[in-house]
Amino acid sequence: MIFNWFKIFIYHLRQSKLFSLLNVLGLSIGVASVIFAILYWNNEHAYDQWNPEKENVYQVLNVIGGTGDTWATSSIPFGNTCKAAITEIEQICFMNDWYNEAVVKYQNKKLIDKKITISDNNFFDFFPFPIIKGAKKDILKEKNSVAIAEEQAKLLFNDEDPIGKSIIYNDKPYIVKSVYRIMRPSSVEPNYVFGGIIREDDINNWGNFSYGLKIKIKKDADINVVLKKMHNVNYVNRTLKDAKESGQTVEQYIKENGEIKIVLDQLKTSRLHGTKTTGSNAPEGKGNLQLIYIMVGLSILILVLSLVNYINLATASAIKRAKEVGVRKIVGASKNQIIGQFIFETAIIVTLSILFALAIVELSLPYYNTFLRKTLTMNGGEFYLQLILIFGLVIILAGIFPAIYISNFETLKVLKGNFSRSKSGIWIRNSMLIFQFGIAAFFIIGALIVNSQVDYMMNKDLGFSGNQVIRIPFNYQDYAKKGDKYQLTKQEILKIPGVEEVSTFAGTFGNSTNSSSGFTHNGVFVQPRNVEMDFDFLKMMKIKIVEGRDLSPKFASDTIDNWLINETLAKTLGLKNPINTVITSGWGGEKGIMKFKVVGVVKDFHITGLQNKVPPMVFINMKTLKWNNFQNVYVKVSPNNLSETLDKLKVYWEKNVNPDYPFFYEFVNKGFARTYEEQVKQKDLFFILNLVVITIAIFGLFALASFSMERRLKEIAIRKTLGAETDVLLKELSKQYILFCFMGFGIGIVPAYILLQKWLEDFAFRINISPVPFTVALISLVMLTLLIVLAKAYQVTKIDVLKYLKYE
Hints:
Shape: elongated
Oligomer: single chain
Structural class: alpha+beta
């Protein structure tokens, strides 16, 4: 029986090669889109799942004062006090929640590595990577200890045993204690883990939030109890103490300054569901849950579209199988046997579709990995189980309805030849066609709105100009002499032809600044970003001063106690006449509490992406506090002979500034563009999926229009005989499809508006949804429909009338 079913399937495959190909291709595209989404979903949800401590380890975050800013760093005394006072905490770990990029040297070999972290001795209790060689406990107990990942050990030492060898990092020697194997994917995947993170002068400094802090709680501990006790540690050691020192009641102090709120993110879920922070809270970054949902949702829509397309084609082509079904019923075939046969045929088509889909994915995976910046592969037991589930689900959804529909043909009607004039199943096919139009409308509207938002972000006035300004990393290790080295470098490179201006500040455009400190003025607490900068930095970046003046070397006080504030900070503090306002700040470093005078107001500009509001900011000359937090030098270069200028900069830099590092530069505008990189990805994703959806919709519309018009060939022949003009026939044949197009568009606009409005809410600066994308989508759908339907309709109006009427 199965063999006979297979022969019948092959026969019909040969009879309808085009429509069989459309069926397979349509399903293949739908299945491929779901496979892509599954690969991304699996990878993002696999982070840290290898870690046996994932449920007990938590990242400690701090919501500072009344600003609402969440920081992924803590202070040393806070962590140590929590460990001593809270019995539910088993261990704590101080570590950098970011990677350092530096040169690592061994004898005459040196390697630049971008994945270096620094930690205390507990790192491997929180991230128990398998130890391949060396010590398994107390690996980082000594400050000059280091553990190396297996791959890096091979690069650095070749065939030598690395244990006990000395390597140089930041001009200091470190002894290799262990070699470990990185388990992926993980929120921390360092190539080197150096010991000695804790600085002696920070042990009692409650205000220095410079250390990533993780806690491991006991297995039976209640995390809510732990969180309550951690809040109490802050209350006793900071709030009460600071209120007493300021001569205020606790209530007055909290009203003016707010309290530090603790947030705990579990390692198991922090990748996708963790709290959004100011700065990084995991070296490997956070996952993009929104992009995952978008990809999964859109891939499911495409699969549904493919299934609808398949069902439409299957039921539309049923007329060609009607007599076959009638004859089989006459000779004794049961309804269940007919259903089984057609499900069997669907299973073959689905199998072919999945094979094609796997080929599409395999060929496209390199581009997909580039798009997501990942290294996804099609393997793993979980993936194959999901593939089997997709196979079964597609067979059920695509096969059962057409099989039941075909098996219910009335035997006598189909054998008499009356079935072709029956309207059985037409309303179902038309409903599905309308649904297809709805999905297509949704994708076109979505693509247009996303494209408009990205274009708005790319073209919006940022408040600064990075034209011809390059950022060059200033990897100078001697912190005490860093400022002097910068001034010398500045004077020397200004002599290079083509270099117009040189300046710096402690931050990068797109990633904000390197520090933030809070203060209270007139009862208002603020936590502004600190911009420690060189003179003429604002001028070079064309950032405007709206009141007062810029900081200048002409005024000695500009390096002592003068600063600038931005418009947002002036509004937050309620300063109507901010110039000459004196503000007391407690972030004077070694100088303690200082009073600063406002000498200018800076026009708001976007230092972070357009997803965020412009933060309050203070601007101070780098000589005032001598923190030397800057990490880059900004150089404005002439567009004339640019390559020659860059070559000379490279020679000077590699010889005099960073001999161990290759010369690297990046245009500021390009660096800022990375802030909307995810949105550009979503724009590209919508564009690609639009092509896919429109392709599938064309398959379905073409096939359905073909079947529909072929059923009306005799009617068309009679109309032509009675004198009907071609344009009248074209109008008659196409008008129902235009009606379906409008109905589908009406279905698609509501979810498109709601979901895209929700998407836009993530941006502090965004477009307003106008009627334009909806109008363009409707016109596009109508034009596409007319193009396909009229092309087919014109073809059938040219039929040979005698061929269809000679037997009448």
